[in-house]
Design a protein that fits this description.
Length: about 130
Amino acid sequence: MTSLAEFIQTKREKAGYSISGLASRASISIEVLEDIESGKDLFLPVSVRQKLARALKCSPAEIKKYEREYEFEIVTDDIIESLKARILNHETNLKCPMCGEPLITRIAKMYDLEDNLVLEPKAHCVKCIFQIK
């Protein structure tokens, strides 16, 4: 089966575009296109898919059929609780337990019914679907 990376690269080469030429024609960054063609991105945002389809003269559905959803193991409650504690301790450079990419973290300040301050750790991955709500 052809991968998304192979499909985009083949369509680009058949159209006679360089990576920078396609990036410019599709109005997306070279970095995004390089991530797609290197296989780092397996699932595209709708806007990127539409821009690539227009530039490559194909349908968005044709591109979508080569995309794959992320396949990761389920993260255990122990790992999530450990991450929450590390966020509350203001640790930096935390990595996603699903894909290993950086986590964007913050501490939400909330108040309970008795006006006591409650700190709630939040996080989401820059690459995959992992998040702590």
